[in-house]
Amino acid sequence: MLKHIHHVAVICSDYERSKLFYTEVLGLEIIREVYRLERKSYKLDLALEGQYIIELFSFPDPPPRASGPEARGLRHLAFAVDNIDQSVAALNTHAVVTEPIRVDPYTGKRFTFFTDPDGLPLELYEL
């Protein structure tokens, strides 16, 4: 029945700040950007290496949501990287704070966490 994950939707508190983070800091490509006047909302479709992965939404005064890694619900969004040291260094040049790199005890792979401008937990996972 299911084939693959199509996309993840993210609601942000500051559209321009989040747009800059996801496009300039993380390097996602803009597929489409629309302003929906009736909802006073932007919808930004983003891709990674040509694959549509994130819908970034803005809404007037969205309520906060618990987003800690151990909160109920979606735990985090993970991105695969070839070299975690280079990826962490690139994030750090944009003043993005990353946790210390850890090793997955089951796979032996290295990973780290950081957050988007609204505190959404994001992960880098080395291939």
TrEMBL record:
InterPro entries: Fosfomycin_Res_Enzymes (IPR051332), Glyas_Bleomycin-R_OHBP_Dase (IPR029068), Glyas_Fos-R_dOase_dom (IPR004360), VOC_core (IPR037523), YwkD-like_dom (IPR037478). Residues 4-127 form the VOC domain. Keywords: Metal-binding. It holds the Pfam family Glyoxalase. The keyword Metal-binding applies. GO terms for molecular function: metal ion binding. NCBIfam families: PRK11478.1 (NF008551). PANTHER family: FOSFOMYCIN RESISTANCE PROTEIN FOSX (PTHR36113:SF6), LYASE, PUTATIVE-RELATED-RELATED (PTHR36113). This is VOC family protein. It comes from Chitinophaga oryziterrae.
